[in-house]
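Comment thread on ticket #2218

A.B. wrote:
> Attaching the input chain for the structure job we discussed in standup.
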Amino acid sequence: MVVGCSSDNPKLPSSSNLFGENPSIENHIKIEDIQANNYTLDELIQHGEHVFIAVLNTLDGKGRPASTGGGAKREPRIFPDNLNRISGPDSDSCAGCHNRPSAGGGGDSVANVFVLAQFEQFVDFSKQEHVVKGLEGIGNERNTLGMFGSGFIELLAREMTDDLQLQKKQAVEKAIKEGILIEENLLTKNISFGKIRVTPFGKVDYSGVEGIDHDLVVKPFHQKGVVESLRVFTNAAMNHHHGIQPTEIFGENTDADGDGVINELTMGDVTALTIFQATLPAPHQVWPKDTHLKSMAKKGENLFSSIGCTSCHVPKLPLENTIFSEPGPYNRYPNLSCSGTLKHKKRSSENTSDKTVGTRCKENGPCYCSESNIEAPYSFDLLPFIKNFTRDEDGRLLVPVFTDLKRHAMGQQLNNEEREQADVPTDQWLTKKLWGFYSEPSYLHHGRASLISEAILAHGGESQSSRDMFASLSDEDKNSLIEYLKTFVINK
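C.D. wrote:
> Ran it. Output below, let me know if you need it in another format.
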């Protein structure tokens, strides 16, 4: 027997049984109803939150007996092998891991996941092949990332990608038109991603690119910086961790994982779930009320800059536009995406003749979506979800993320993995977004540091000099810097 979804509208009574056992997500929504503005933003956030905290069960489609986390077919794994702590499914709920200090945040080390193990058929250390590989050769252990403020993170990444794509486009056009070799520096929001060289025939040499993939798409999610959007992150995680298969990835009315349930998560559900995460409030600094501690923290702020931490943990990145459109323009296939005509304007403070602005196809003309029944992305303003912000002289919102959204080589102490994730070298990591981090211990990609000082001292590679300067500080100065970092909290 194949079980389908229940009601398509959360405003209507559920079609589930009144008695006995029911799925945790009793109502699913259609993307067409979102397109028709049949839901308010609050209703979409509420539905997304419900999906995020729902304790999923078999009737929801939990489990993927006949497929891996990557969607490949496998021999069906049924009870008691329906779950697997290493290769997954490994969780009952999104909030089962993302819960520190509340739903949407980071997680305890007990909730660490083993990312690449999901592509294994079924990890079983009674098998010699898995014993030989060992845990480090099978999976990449990861501590749970917090999602507060992630809507602003994605908007920053989109704008940075807009800039880099435009710079590449202009370099190619100029090289072909003038018949010369062009060397173009890749610079966005004052962050350098190296350079490209373009031949007179339009061929691009990416060997000078730094901290980003050669597609020049800024990917701000995962510790390796390999996922471009909340939607792509969500679609992959739902199948990996829960065995809940989104229809936009696996198709409608298809039981790809052989669990007897179809249409486990609709495009509308994923849109709502993405919007919930995008609207999780941005963290902001909370300074000590005690005058002595505040004085120490202020001193620590200066030390944080003077020893070079802000070269990667950039305090504030400027955001042109706070309108969040979902789905976004850079989602990889088969994830739902929308892109269209971009609007350009001249800014006197920059040398470039035109500059991409965040407003997109809904306001500016033709929109091209990966599904023919999607006319334009759902758009709303994120400004209400950030407090205590400032703007620069050009009116841009200064987002206090404390990252450059770029990957860096971090030295041998953090080079603990054997498998590359998405072809990223094992010693490279995306600069940690420090806003809110003190509310989400433990620290580092695997959660091995229980103290801030331990995390700092584990730095190496490109950050070796800053690490060494921290180590050489007096105890008083170290404590001042730590007091400063303790201001980065999530205010519940």
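A.B. wrote:
> Thanks. Noting for the ticket: The two ends are 45 Å apart (CA to CA).
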